[in-house]
Request: fold
Amino acid sequence: MKSLVSQSVIDASDKLRADTMAKVNADPKLRKIYDDTRKEAQANIDRHKKMRLKRKVNGTVVEVEVADSPTKVKSKRKKSDRSKRIELLDTLFSEAIRMRDGFTCQRCGHQNKSAQAAHIWTRNNYSTRWDMENALCLCYMCHIKGFHSAHREPAEFLEWIHKRMGDERWEALKVRSMNTVKVNDAFLDETEKRLRKYLARWK
Reply:
């Protein structure tokens, strides 16, 4: 699948990565922190991958890789039908974002099947929780664990997103994120239909 990341973005990311690695390699302490961070990141990726595969199996998402021995997690309280539907929509949405972006980190250009769907405005806002403009594909380091990741430097991340989207799209998404929606069966049905239709385009 062709990457949707422009060459200029990739070149700038490569230069930033090269400069950062030069500083890291020049300082033994920084190098140790970097190596430890990468090991922890890979461990988290492996753990989340198993969890995601299990969720996909239970949610019957299209083109699922079945884990060899999915671990059954015992729960004291059964999930409600509404919670299960929201979980399924989250999985469909994540698949749609990653397939749209070619499993390529939109910040550093790294391509990996373990790439994640990162929300721009919080997923607590159901008006934009499954809005295709409210998320993009990021690698684990750019999303959560890196020195300048979205979770560690949210202000920097939002500023980068703002420039990437432009004022008009940015403001429109911001307004939508502040809207209140009633999360009823009709809303969930329509959202699932829209996401499955979108996924079908990439099959």
Summary: The first strand starts at residue 116 and ends at 119. DSSP finds seven helices and two strands in the chain.
